[in-house]
Write a structure and sequence with these properties.
By secondary structure, this protein is mostly beta strands. It contains 3 helices and 34 strands.
């Protein structure tokens, strides 16, 4: 039990902690896509304020293929996922790591066909934004979905040396022709891995879930089926890990479900059907007393699943379509957002809650606009930062009362944002799609400290570990640090 959680329990407050508790936050690692406490904050990080292609770039390496996974940082490893086209044309054949040992235990689901309803968007940590106007930097019309590939792809997990960026190991876990394409702004490797320091859980959606040791050897694999995403825009939710349990949300245009797996073996502990269409939000794990809950946003309902058996403890409506941003927890409140056609924010007092909370005093505060479509919010101390849709408009709210510190403040140099903001050392980092990052002073007043630019396009959320900032572009991975 962490010192922080122990203190909270002694005070009689029933607060949550994420998959990795406060004691792990001090380790200066980034173990999951929203950081140690799943709120976007590196509590002990001190990355630079300023950088460019010629300043404070410790290393820059070109990554093969394409991917949107957030770099994980553990010890001296930086871990990423990627999908690499091989040029081999389809022959209706596929190979997965150690497939012969596991095929008998796996059953492949057959999803329903997409309903093609409306112009929707979504691709993992970076679904497409609905944009208007010309194709300036960071702007332009969305390129729509890509047809299903006709060539084989290698789905790989790479570990780079944290000090130099050199490849330590590169493991192809799966080689096949994807059954479905993705949005033009998306990727066939959009999800982020998660690690407990002993194993890496690399998730490629319809291409499988793989448990690797820290040397890149596959320990087990799991095939959950083939998704059929809305309008073929692609997949993207990442796995959540707490103790020895992995939780994965499988929302698509077929039979949606949520599943909990034993992290040691990959065996299913429980599976529950979900009345939801395609969504892209990663579950948040919190604690209510002695009960751990997986909080999963959805267009129909926000639901809290008991981690032991998958039963729904409480649910609440209020979000719009295409749920992408991940929820955060603040002092007994769950704060969830959506920003597609019906932008909304719902803050729920969840401690001790059961049943349907819609329209009850358990709904602490709500918001009907200014919320993000793709980027997840940043909860930094007692301030909640979030982007409007996918634009360069930032708001900062009191997460307890719902009162704004500032609203829809324009980031002058940033035109489009898919990456989620992160915070460290009293600063907020917002990475634009066009290579520009604005660094703000953390606080109730909007103040830009620096504007930085790199020669790449950025749709992936940053990672902060110690004094380093890791930025994954469409072509390169950067380690930003003072030399």
């Amino acid at each position: 039990m962490s010192v922080r959680l122990h203190t909270v329990l002694l005070l009689g407050c029933l607060l949550s902690r994420c998959a990795f508790g406060a004691e792990d936050s001090a380790a200066n690692e980034w173990r999951q896509w929203r950081g140690p406490d799943f709120n976007g904050v590196a509590a002990h990080g001190k990355p630079p304020i300023e950088w460019s292609e010629s300043k404070n770039v410790r290393w820059k390496v070109e990554l093969p293929g394409d991917g949107l996974s957030v770099p994980l940082v553990w010890d001296n490893l930086v871990i990423v996922q990627t999908a690499i086209p091989t040029g081999k044309q389809s022959e209706d054949k596929s190979t997965k790591a150690d497939e012969s040992e596991d095929d008998a235990a796996e059953q492949k689901a057959t999803p329903d066909s997409p309903d093609g309803e409306g112009r929707r968007a979504g691709q993992g940590d970076a679904p497409p934004e609905e944009r208007r106007g010309g194709r300036g930097r960071g702007r332009g019309r969305g390129r729509g979905r890509r047809a299903a590939p006709s060539e084989e792809y290698k789905f790989s997990v790479m570990a780079l040396d944290r000090s130099t960026g050199k490849t330590v190991w590169d493991r192809t876990v799966c080689e096949l022709v994807p059954h479905e394409g993705n949005h033009g702004d998306g990727s066939l490797a959009p999800a982020s891995p998660v690690t407990d320091g002993k194993h890496i859980y690399a998730y490629f959606g319809s291409r499988g879930l793989y448990c690797l040791d820290m040397k890149g050897n596959v320990v087990w694999q799991k095939d959950l089926g083939d998704m059929s995403t809305r309008n073929g825009f692609g997949e993207g939710t990442s796995p959540a890990l707490v103790d020895d349990t992995l939780v994965i949300t499988w929302d698509h245009e077929g039979d949606s479900f949520i599943v909990a797996l034993d992290a040691k073996s990959g065996n299913e502990r429980w599976r529950k059907d979900r009345d939801e269409a395609t969504s892209w939000a990663t579950p948040l794990i919190v604690r209510d007393g002695d009960t751990q809950l997986a909080i999963v946003p959805g267009s129909n309902r926000i639901r809290a699943y008991q981690l032991t058996n998958g039963n729904v403890r409480w649910e609440c409506s209020g979000l719009g379509s295409n749920c992408v941003p991940c929820p955060v927890e603040y002092k007994g409140k769950i704060i969830t957002m959506s920003g597609h056609r019906e932008p909304a924010l719902v803050a729920i007092d969840y401690v001790g809650a059961t049943g349907d909370l819609t329209g009850t005093p358990r709904v602490s505060w709500t918001l009907g606009g200014g919320t993000p479509y793709v980027p997840s919010p940043l909860l930094y101390g007692d301030m909640l930062y979030f982007i409007q849709k996918n634009t360069g408009m930032l708001s900062c709210y009191d997460p307890d009362t719902g009162q704004p510190h500032f609203e829809k403040q324009r980031l002058d140099k940033i035109k489009g944002v898919y990456a989620s903001p992160v915070g460290a050392d009293g600063r907020v980092y917002i990475v634009g799609r066009d290579g520009i990052t604005e660094v703000l002073k953390h606080g109730p007043e909007f103040k830009v400290l620096a504007t930085n630019e790199l020669d790449d396009r950025f749709d992936t959320s940053p990672a902060i570990a110690g004094n380093e900032l890791f930025l994954r572009g469409r072509k390169h991975l950067y380690c930003i640090a003072e030399k």
